[in-house]
Amino acid sequence: MDDPILTAVAVALSTRAVEGLTDAAREALASVMRLVRRKAAEHRALRAALTAEPTSGGSDDRAVGLRRALVDAADRDPDFDQELRRRWETFHQTTVRADAVTNTVSGQVTGPVVQARDISGGVHVGLPAQQHPRQ
Predict the structure, then answer these.
(1) Alpha-carbon torsion 17, 23, 28, 32, what sign?
(2) Strand, helix or coil for residue 80
(3) What's the CA gap between 7 and 5, in Å, rounded?
(4) Which distant-in-sequence residues (6+ apart) come within 8 Å of 34 by Cβ?
(5) Secondary structure in 3-state letters for the chain
(6) Residue-wise burial string across 72-99, b where 16 or more C-beta atoms lie within 10 A, e elsewhere
(7) φ, ψ for residue 113 (rounded to 5)?
């Protein structure tokens, strides 16, 4: 069974993507990485997955290998699993800004939907002229 948290950790660590992160998010991700590196010192498969060079096909193979090693390490050490999840949640929370916009549409929608955050100037939402009912 795929564990979405361990999959997300594996992808984040295998791509080493930190562009656009706030300082707090970078520090939280670094905390996750430090924990994983400490565990890798005693877990051969995790160490190999962390040091593996990306293949020519991209980081997917590396992420899959890292995810497998994380799953194994987490299965063998519940304390590591719990701490990894706690640190990942901290990282996740730092990436969700208080002023972030989350657009959600639910239910049956029968007309246009507009989702926006900051708008300067006027906004007119209505049916195009040819669709207005005649009176």
Answers:
(1) positive
(2) helix
(3) 5
(4) none
(5) CCCHHHHHHHHHHHHCCCCCCCHHHHHHHHHHHHHHHHHHCCCHHHHHHHHCCCECCECHHHHHHHHHHHHHHHHHCHHHHHHHHHHHHHHHHHHCCCCCCCCCCCCCCCCCCCCCCCCCCCCCCCCCHHHCCCC
(6) ebbeeeeebbebbbebbebbeebeeeee
(7) -125, 130
pLDDT tens for 16-62 read 566 667 788 888 888 999 999 999 999 999 999 888 876 655 557 77
Separation between Cα atoms, residue 32 and residue 53, nearest integer Å: 20
Measured in degrees and rounded to the nearest 5, phi and psi for residue 58 equal: 115, -165
Could you read off the pLDDT of 86-121 as tens digits, one per residue?
A: 999 998 888 766 455 556 666 777 777 777 767 788
**Which tokens is 49 given?**
């997955």
